[in-house]
Amino acid sequence: MYQYFIAPIIGFLFGSIPFSWLIVKIVTGKDVREEGSGSVSTRNTIRTAGYFWAILTGSLDITKGFLAVFITRFYLAPTVAMGSDDLSILCAALAGIGAFTGHLWMPWMKFKGGKGFAVLLGSMIVINPYGNLVWVISILLFLVIIRYSYLAGLAATISVAILGTFFYIFTVPNIYWSSWAVIVHGWGIVIILVLRLIPDFKAMRRGDIKRWSGVKVSQWTK
Q1: Which end of the chain is less congested by CB atoms within 10 angstroms, N or C?
Q2: How far is CA 64 from the centre of its chain?
Q3: How do the domains of the chain map onto residue ranges?
């Protein structure tokens, strides 16, 4: 049963790799925490180093989320409790939650980080790839309705958790939505994301964060 304790630690260590900081430091010599929004994120990499390096950062963030869950699911978790698939997926889910948490609060970056959406998408490739499709469609929809990118990301994440819960409760046959461990992953991510976004909620109320104003490249660099 030690796997349940090791899984989130493995995830946290993967998630806490500060690719944005490393890439910006190597390319520009700057500290990404002292630029733009101060976050160690893909979006802040756009402001600091440009789109090419931001795409690389986002890809690496997706990869670390994927690897944390993949390694746990197929190398650590198969030894769990008499081969129970649900318990095996639970270990992977804990690793995904750990990776997400590690990205949000990186200990090497004085507990600064990003919003974790790339890491979430990477982890869901293994746990629930259909969830990625739901998330992408949802965030595009909520961006138009809500027009706050962080709130849209939160709403999209909640949508995935709700749909996973619905499919499980009503026993909709599906290889990826059929495990209760997927629900643990979905709602675990939602709770952690809400905690991370508390400062942003306060900033929105003060008017410090502007609404998304449409498909403009400049919008993502402000």
Answers
A1: N
A2: 10
A3: 3-221
